[in-house]
Amino acid sequence: MSKRSNTIIFYCLVVGVLGGFLLAPLAGVFGRAFWFTGTFDPSLFLLTLASPIVQTACTNSILLAFLSLAMAFFIAVPLAFIVSRYTFFSRSLFSVLVLIPMMLPPFVGAIGMTRMFGQYGFINLFFGLGPIPWLTSANIVVVALLQALHLFPILYLNISSSLSQINPELLEAARTSGAKNARVLSDIVLPLAMPGIAAGAILVFLWSLTDLGTPLLMGFRNVLAVEIFERTVSINTDPSGSILVIILMLTTIFLVLIFKKFFAFETATPSRGQRTVSLKQPSLPANILMSVFMWCVVTASILPHCGIILTSLAEKWYFTALPTEWSFRFFGSALSAQGMQHAVQNSLLYSSVATLVDVILGTYFAWMIARKKIRAAWAIDALIMLPMALPGIILAFGYIATFSGTFLDPLKNPIPLLIIGYSIRRLPFCFRSAYAGFLQTGPEFEEAGRVCGATPSTIGRTITLPLISAHLAAGALLAFLFAMLEVSESMVLAVKEQFFPLTRFIYALLGKIPDGEYVASALGVICMIILGSGIALASAIVGKQLGKMFRM
Amino acid sequence: MKKLEIKSVSKKFGTVNALLDVSLVLMPGELFFLLGPSGCGKTTLLRIIAGLETPDTGSVLLDDNNITALPSEKRTMGMVFQNYALWPHMTVFENIAYGLKRRKTNTKELHTRVGDILDKTGLSSLSNRKPTTLSGGQQQRVALSRALVYNPEIVLFDEPLSNLDAQLRGELRAQIRELHAALGITMVYVTHDQEEVHALAQRAALMMNGTILQVDTPPMLFSKPNSNRAAQFFGRRNIFTVSITEVSQTITTVLLGSCKLTLAHKENASALNSTITLLIPEEKIILTESKSHETNCFEGTIISLEISSQTKVIGIQIHNIVLYALCLNSASYHMSQALFVEIPCESVWIIPDE
To answer: For residue A284, which of A170, A248, A449, B82 sits 20 to 30 Å off, Cα-Cα?
Structure first.
């Protein structure tokens, strides 16, 4: 294939896939918001903007995101600094455990939290504290804490990945120039790690800002994501949902621009032959202190998981710290629940097809951008990474706005749009991981193959793919796992039960059967086992590079 | 053995001219060097020869066949990369055998040829090892073997020794020289290291800012640079702009500072009072304790001494100029010492105007 035709295919794919299923739906939302009467009319947009409910929702959403970010920072920054610089007891075990919070299945996390921190939950009863209402319903701090405990690993991975890339010689140069540890930290380490910190911070902020599951389950409903969700049913008659989506989108863009203005986003790639940071051996008291801190964080962050596991195994658990009778029967009920098999099949189908699409497209886009001199590569890179910051609910809303009444109408058959939506939102994982693989292997391996007489397809098969396969596998694994955990699009697009994926099924199950909470917890445990093995595998394959996949 | 010809090749990266109308002819079996500072375009030219870059204009001819549009994989060239580019997922044997496999060489012959080259380069015992477990020198030998094993028509070297220590560089230079002598293949070698040029090159092209300044043998490049820029690249210090004070049928006299310097060079009478640029090679200057000649012998004082492992460079103040002379380390000189400097008139090189 000639270079020209390859470039044409690339641009066609970019326009077709990202233009058609990312930009067009967003444009569709704009259309419904501003052209609902047939002509351009911003009056309703301004009216909605002035509404006290919307203003409160905006304030609550932003406040919630800031709170979550602050809490995540408080947890992740010391963790990353300690893990990247020191060796301490159980360090290797900790590096796996710290990823567990990411695999909290949606909705059931709240069950686990209630079981642990409820008025008659484990903490109060076990320590004899009395019925302290730790979780006052609709409390913004509790919602933020839940989100922070779920999202801090993203910040942790970004920061530790950044720290691991800092050439130790730069720190040594500062020390030989007379800088003390604090100076080295403030003048060298922090500025160099800032892209990683900023990239992680923006993701945590946006994921919290647009999170639907936690506020919905905790009853904290006056936030933008929940307001939008509640308006999806009336999308064709009421433009206020579209207007809220635009407000959320503008808030997102505004905040991303602010972050970009104040923090450099260039990611430093380690130079060739760069030494790696050697870990310091702390003194015994410091070692113990670090280990205790780590275990406190891990314990706090996995409390919801413990709550879910205990609930799934509890035959009888009323007003006692731990269940009084144990049973596996809810696992049986979960596996035999009506529609369960179908939901698992749906989830596997949507996630695996979406992952396959992501691997193919992500690798192709990454190859073109990393290896070919593509015009406006930075813009295409930004466009591919956009879904990382784009809330699922916005995209799902956009799909309904754009494709209702067409052959892709989600009300008739949401499967194509669910798969497309899953793919578009997880494309950044596969793209970034393949891109990192291409950058890390460098073009000279392929050039050496060409000089030796190999054709481009042989080079791809015998040199490029084996060298970047670990990156591809890790990207695919993360894309698959996050697709399996997908909430927003599933909630909005999968309306009929026959199309429910697992997460939507769990949500439906909670309010449907008497033992819903227990059965959902059992399903949650099954999800956790699958996700935990996946993330541990991804972490083992790419190590500290895992953080790079969460970079915008 | 193939003749390689570069015809008016230009290449631009964005707004930067990497190569500007470069032309070269390499004789069959020649060990030819592309020499120049970083960013002068030498690696770009090598990559164009390899087919890894396409020139914007101009052509590459191999034995008069135009191969400009021929993809790299069809050119039958071997290349040794600066960072070796050994595939980390393959063993030493697999790395070397790769080019033969692409040429569908039968298994028996493949094993024989890889075995031969492993023997020649002393890598036989490492054939099952992965490249990452090898030292820099061993990796470079694997890269060299991989480039030679399928008998390429041209072998290209992109600063192959720049990552090695002095001793290994010396050993590998000797190995490349022996291989070139034994195989007689046309080789193109990119470097910025003048020592490497002196040690290996039959001819070299000095490149700067995307153009070729001079093509010649190493001794000629070094002692008779064709431009001020070339002289400066070779680290020449005794470059002076002087005015012609006297011309005759056999000699020319110029004013070097306040000293009259006679050159074995004919100038036209019209050149009188005009200025020329001179290079007085440091290694040609003779230092004596007493005045040996009436012409071109000046008294001076040592004002600097730069000592290296085998030689020393002595800075001598002669009236209002400073002249640098090279001598062996064994010669004993000290600061502020008075001595005489003799400049053989035939050793002075007049640098042509650019």
So the answer is: A170
